[in-house]
Amino acid sequence: MVSDIGALQRITKNNGNVGLLKKLSLTGEMFGWETALKLGVVVDVAEDEVDLEKKVFALAEQIAEKSPMVNWGIKRIINFSRDNPINESLDMVATMNSAFLQAREVEDSVKAVLTKTKAIYPKL
């Protein structure tokens, strides 16, 4: 059977290495972390469970310091862009950013930059 959970479609759109994807898919060849990195299936690897936990929490902390509203918007645009034409994605982000300009977070972000402090954002 052909893989039907969207993996072939998503990897093809997310990574230009279609040749490697075809080779692995057509042969059923098993692959390790190096190949997973090349395909963009993973973005990082860890040496062990302790290293993994350290990396996960550092990444989560880094993301959590950013605007929740903007994080939501970034995730929404990336997912939308995967399945839609560029012009529709550009229209969507323009509309989204127009709405974001009305948010308090913009003022908080500008103040934080000007005062060289960290912005504290409300939860969504």
Q: What do the pLDDT scores average to?
A: 86
Largest sheet: none
The DSSP helix count reads: 7
Sheet-strand content, in percent, reads under 5%
CATH domain topology of the largest domain:
Lyase 2-enoyl-coa Hydratase, Chain  A, domain 2
Structural class: mainly alpha
CA distance, first residue to last residue: 42 Å
Rg calc: 19 Å
User: H/E element string?
Assistant: HHHHHHH
Number of domains: 2
Q: What is the global morphology? A: flat
CATH class of the largest domain: Mainly Alpha
Q: Helicity level, as a percent range?
A: 55-70%
Which residue ranges are poorly predicted, with pLDDT under 50 across at least 5 consecutive positions? none
How does CATH name the architecture of the largest domain?
Orthogonal Bundle
- The CATH H-level superfamily of the largest domain is Lyase 2-enoyl-coa Hydratase, Chain  A, domain 2
Topology readout:
Layout: H1 7-14, H2 18-27, H3 33-39, H4 49-64, H5 68-83, H6 86-100, H7 104-115
Helix pairs in contact: 5-6
Overview of the structural elements:
- The protein folds into 2 domains: 7-45, no CATH class; 52-115, Orthogonal Bundle (Lyase 2-enoyl-coa Hydratase, Chain  A, domain 2).
- The radius of gyration is 19 Å and the shape is flat.
- By secondary structure, it is mostly helical.
- The model has no long low-confidence stretch (mean pLDDT 86).
- It contains 7 helices and no strands.
- The chain has helices at residues 7-14, 18-27, 33-39, 49-64, 68-83, 86-100, 104-115.
- The chain is 68% helix and 0% strand.
